[in-house]
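Hi there, hope your week has been kind to you so far. Thanks so much in advance, here it is.
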Amino acid sequence: MGCSKNLVDSEQLLLQFEAIGYQVEHNADVSNGGIVIINTCGFIGDAKEESIDTILEWSAARKNGRISKLFVMGCLSERYLKELTDEIPEVDHFYGKFNWKEVIADLGETYHNELKLKRHLTTPSHYAYIKISEGCNRTCSYCAIPIITGKHQSRPMEDILEEIRLLSSQGVKEFQLIAQDLSYYGKDLYHTLKLADLVEQISLIPGVEWLRLHYTYPYEFPLDILRVMRERPNVCSYLDMALQHISDNMLLKMRRKINKEQTLKLLKRIRLEVPGIHLRTTLMVGHPGETEADFRELCDFVKETRFERMGAFIYSEEEGTYAAKHYQDVIPAEVKQARLDELMLLQQGISEKINAAKVGKTFKVIVDREEQNYYVGRTEFDSPEVDPEVFISKEKKLKPGNFYNIEITSSEPYDLFGRTEY
């Protein structure tokens, strides 16, 4: 459950179980007599509720004897280990975010250390997520991630490169670099920001056709990555940077360490140095202290900046955070929802125009899957599961995992339609 960083942990565990002789099914709906392991999310209220509901569902199955054992791991159990252990005794054992390898020992088996850079992919075989660090050193007011995962810990560059070489040799063509904060990569290990060096070295590995960056932080952004994005053809012109807000009042309350002027200057430089780049951002509404004027300023910012990709969410008070300790969450729920709806409706109109401008143009597209009436793929500007897809007519037989030149014939606000270029 939760983010793609959790997915990587699950994929590593899958391979470990297969190595010791277990048959494993990912995201099974029903199990009779087997062992169930739930990898939880504990980020915000909705995610925690979903994780708890899932635990309770399988706890009932454990109590009724439908499954033999139930283990829970991940961010929720890292954060609420004692409470969960006391409240849900049907769970055989809870593990945190970083000690999940112990589940293997608790089953009387041995962890295969020689497999630490390998995993069983649950994504389509042509793309994979690559986690380059854990934790976060930022102190944003609303965020519980540092409480759950601790300080930023970069993975050694050699391990990341070797993992990508292994996956590339297995036919993986597209790599999504993920972390809570890509911008900080290398500072703890090498005493300087190393994201650009890492990306450049990855781009030189044979078989890496697309490389995409997720979750950069605007403060102390590693500007040298822009040169790499511009010069290396297999580094996608795509950048995911959560900005959260734009008004100086809110950026200060959120403890983002960057102001409006600096943010606008950074965005201008990114677009200048990487022509045609598609920017993805996430924005927050309803944070304590957000006035109507702050929200109007945020809407104006979205109108002017015209993000190619944008998501937004409502502030959720998380215990232990700076905001929970120092601010009162007094903005009514209906006001928060109305602001979210207005912001997303605004973005829908922007996305509709951006997509419409692609009609008649041809793009390199990777095909993810075949459906009854269409092949479904993505351009370099689209990350799996969160961004628009390209629905390709079946005039010509295509193979999932391969790249094709696709002419865009029509568009909708969040999807494109096309045909194979002859």
The chain has three domains: 4-115, 127-356, 362-420. Residues 208 and 365 are 15 Å apart (CA to CA). The two ends are 41 Å apart (CA to CA). The first strand starts at residue 35 and ends at 40.
